[in-house]
Write a structure and sequence with these properties.
Elements lengths: L6 H7 L37 H14 L8 H19 L5 H14 L7 H12 L8 H13 L17 H17 L4 E2 L2 H4 L8 H13 L3 E5 L8 E4 L2
Antiparallel strand pairs: 1-3, 2-3
Helix pairs in contact: 2-3, 2-4, 3-5, 4-5, 6-7, 7-9
Length: about 240
C-alpha cells in the first residue's frame, strides 16, 4: 500500500478561499410551459376515465390559466371556469367540489395572486362555473358550423321530413344542427338560438328559436336538456 501523501504538499495545493461575493437572490419559480397549440376542446376523456387522468387534465388547465404579471385575475379565473365546463362536457358529468378545489388550488399555486385570498377565489370560481354559457371551444365550433352552412348550395341543405317546400332559413338552421353534430363528434351538443341564427343572414334569435321548435316537432332534432339563463339548450341530431 502506498504511503500517505506529504501533509505539507496538501497544504501547498490547497486553494485560497474565494473572495466574498454578494448573495445571489433566489430565482423565481419557473412557470410550467404549456404548448401554445394545446387543443382544450378536444378532451379525450370519458365518463370512465381514471381519476389520475382527470386530475392531470385539471392541473394542466390550471397551469394554462395561471395569472402572470400583466394578467387580470378575474379574466384568468373566468377562462379557467370555461375550461372546466369543457371538461364536464367531455366526461358527461359535473365536477365534484373536491375536484374543483384541486383545480383552483393548483391555479392559486401557479399564479401570481395573493394566496391569502384563496377562499375568496374558490367561492367565486365555483359560482362562475355554473354561469358559463359557452364552454371553451364551443364558440369556435359554432363559427365553423355557420361557415360550413354558408358555403352550401340549397340542394345540399338538410331536407326537413314532412316539409318538402320548407323555407331556406328552416333548412339552413336544420343544417346548422347537422354540422354541430358532426363537428363536436358527440351525440349531444349545445346550440343557443342566437348561435342558430348565424345559419341564415338576417335571421333573428326569436325566429331561430321558433324554427328550432319546428325542427323538434318534425323530428330533425331532439332536446336533451332545456336551456337556462346560464346555459344553452342541449340537442341531439336525429337524421
Amino acid at each position: 500500500m502506498k504511503a500517505n501523501a506529504n501533509p505539507e504538499a496538501k497544504i501547498q495545493r490547497a486553494e485560497l478561499p474565494l473572495t466574498p461575493q454578494q448573495p445571489v437572490p433566489p430565482q423565481k419559480h419557473p412557470w410550467p410551459q404549456v404548448p401554445a397549440n394545446l387543443e382544450i376542446p378536444q378532451l379525450h376523456l370519458s365518463p370512465l376515465s381514471s381519476r389520475q387522468e382527470l386530475e392531470e387534465q385539471l392541473k394542466t388547465l390550471a397551469g394554462k390559466n395561471a395569472v402572470g404579471l400583466d394578467d387580470e385575475e378575474t379574466e384568468k379565473r373566468w377562462q379557467l371556469a370555461r375550461d372546466e365546463r369543457a371538461v364536464e362536457l367531455a366526461i358527461e358529468r359535473a365536477l365534484t367540489i373536491s375536484e374543483q378545489t384541486l383545480m383552483l388550488d393548483e391555479w392559486i399555486r401557479l399564479s401570481m395572486v395573493d394566496s391569502r385570498k384563496r377562499d375568496e377565489h374558490l367561492a367565486a370560481f365555483i359560482v362562475e362555473v355554473r354561469k358559463v354559457r359557452v364552454p371553451t371551444g364551443q364558440s369556435d365550433t359554432v363559427d365553423k358550423a355557420a361557415d360550413r352552412v354558408s358555403k352550401l348550395s340549397i340542394p345540399q341543405l338538410v331536407q326537413i321530413p314532412g316539409m318538402p317546400n320548407a323555407p331556406e332559413s328552416f333548412r339552413r338552421v336544420a343544417t346548422m344542427h347537422r354540422e354541430m353534430f358532426r363537428l363536436t363528434g358527440e351525440t349531444v351538443y349545445f346550440l343557443g338560438c342566437r348561435d342558430a341564427a348565424k345559419a341564415f343572414a338576417g335571421l333573428t334569435h326569436q325566429m331561430a328559436n321558433n324554427i328550432n321548435a319546428i325542427l323538434v316537432k318534425q323530428k330533425v332534432i331532439k332536446i336533451v336538456e332545456s336551456g337556462t339563463a346560464i346555459r344553452a339548450t342541449r340537442y341531439t341530431y336525429l337524421l
